[in-house]
Amino acid sequence: MTRVQTFQTSDAAFEASFSRFLRYAQLRIEDFSKPGLDELAALRDGSPEGEIRHDEALGRHYDVMNIRAPYYTAKVLPIARRYYHDALAGDPEGGLGLVLLLNYHRADVAYAAYLLYQRGELTQRVFGRVLGDVFIDGKCCGTLRASGFTLLQITEMFDAALPHDVMDEDDYAVFRSLPDVLEIYRGTAGQTAKQATYGMSWTCNRETAEWFAGVHASRGKPPQVWSGIVCRTDVLAYLNGRNEAEIVVRPGRVSGVRLEPTIQRLAA
Q1: Suppose 237 and one of 6, 51, 146, 248 were both cysteines; which one would form an S-S bond, judging by CB atoms 3.0 to 4.6 Å apart?
Q2: What span, in angstroms and rounded, lies between the C-alpha atoms of 232 and 35?
């Protein structure tokens, strides 16, 4: 078992570890210098120049079209430090707090947690909880794949985590009770069978797959529901936090992948 180091927030060792976390999460101290709403309001001094300064700063503050360019205020940095201190102390809530706080970088926070676990600075439990939280909420804030991480990197992260850390108690109970072989479904649009085979997110609920097919089809591609067979040993996690009965599988391990008959209402 890796021995986790302990730090005080005033220690040089803590500062070095926190700097590593920021670097691994693709963040810089400068990224926490965006003006807050109170600072924006202070720019308005009643003069035309003040209005111009306010409007320019407001545009920078709310320009979130590039999801990879965060706009965190200076007030966020000390909170991030406190959450990181708690995570270093072995508290999973500290890691989850970082995911919530650094919302635009949640995928990078997960990978940073993985690298810091590899270094022995974060516990396996903290890393696993962060990974599970980021993966299950990816549909809202960008998946690990959409953030540029490869299937190999994501699989390595799951292999490094303990299943009961990635999943909550109820999901882990279902995970342990899965049959040796199970039929699973995946909803896509405009994919080939090979692309579907290498997808990691499946479900044991066909209706959920149909829903995802309909969502993807709204982008102008024909809806698809794929089915396949996977061995229990190739299932990395079962996640139902979003009521999707998600089966996370090792890429390329789904066999007998076939396209289900198109349902008319999905194509409508």
Answers
A1: 248
A2: 50
Using the structure block, give the residue that is written with the tokens 């970088």: 105
Where does the chain have alpha helices with state H?
12-24, 37-42, 48-62, 76-88, 92-101, 106-118, 124-136, 138-141, 151-160, 163-166, 169-177, 193-197, 206-217, 264-267
Q: Which helix (H) or strand (E) holds 247?
A: strand 246-249
Q: pLDDT tens for residues 131-187?
A: 999 988 755 445 788 888 999 999 999 999 999 999 999 999 999 999 999 999 999
Q: Which sequence spans correspond to the domains of the chain?
A: 12-29+72-163, 168-267
- For residue 26 the two structure tokens come to 């693709």
Strand-strand pairing, 223-231 and 246-249: unpaired
Give me the phi and psi of 221, to 5 degrees please.
-110, 150
pLDDT digits (tens, 9 = 90+) for 71-91: 688 889 999 999 999 999 999
